[in-house]
Amino acid sequence: MNRFARSVRTENSLQVAARRSLARHCATGLAVGCLLLQVLAAHGASAAVGSRSDPTLSFSNGVQLNIGVVVADPAADVSLLQYTVHTPKGVGVSVTYPAGDPLTAKERFIVQQDNPTNLYTVYSILQTYTPNQTYTVYISNAKTKQQVTAAGSTGQTVTLTMQG
To answer: What residue numbers bound the domain in which 82 lies?
Structure first.
């Protein structure tokens, strides 16, 4: 029985040690999380939020693509967000903006009908008053469930291509 009692005590000691270790890790994680929140609060909401735009492109052949842009900078700092959209030959496009889109007035679209059938290419370029701001662009097709994403920074052209 002594042997059994010792093994139970050993397991209990290991369990206690494991609980203490878990408690230390949880406390460390909580402290890091609190520190991160303090840093974000010190830099203001604009550093944490940025701005975004989500226009929808409707093509005359029935294809519909959504363009999403997330800018790591407030909308007030964006001077231009330009898209050059290459569509299949003979396919026109119209752009719809969601209500309240903060970048609508700063967006420009250039359409070139020079791609082969069912191929859509979007070149985007961001200009901001503050240099070296990052942005992410995606295009998605709800019908085919395709999505393509790429990232760049101020002044760089980001290119995305999708089959329609």
So the answer is: 47-163
Same domain membership, residue 57 and residue 39? no
Q: Are residues 107 and 51 in the same domain?
A: yes
Distance CA(130)–CA(51), nearest Å, equals 14
Number of structural domains (the chain) is 2
pLDDT per residue rounded down to tens, the chain (164 residues)? 555 444 444 445 555 555 565 555 444 444 444 333 343 333 333 333 477 888 999 999 999 999 999 998 899 999 999 999 999 999 999 999 888 888 888 999 999 999 999 999 999 999 999 999 999 999 999 888 899 999 999 999 999 999 88
Asked if 37 and 94 sit in the same domain, the reply is no
One domain for residues 91 and 26: no
| Whether 75 and 148 share a structural domain | yes
CA distance 155 to 160: 16
146/131 same-domain check? yes
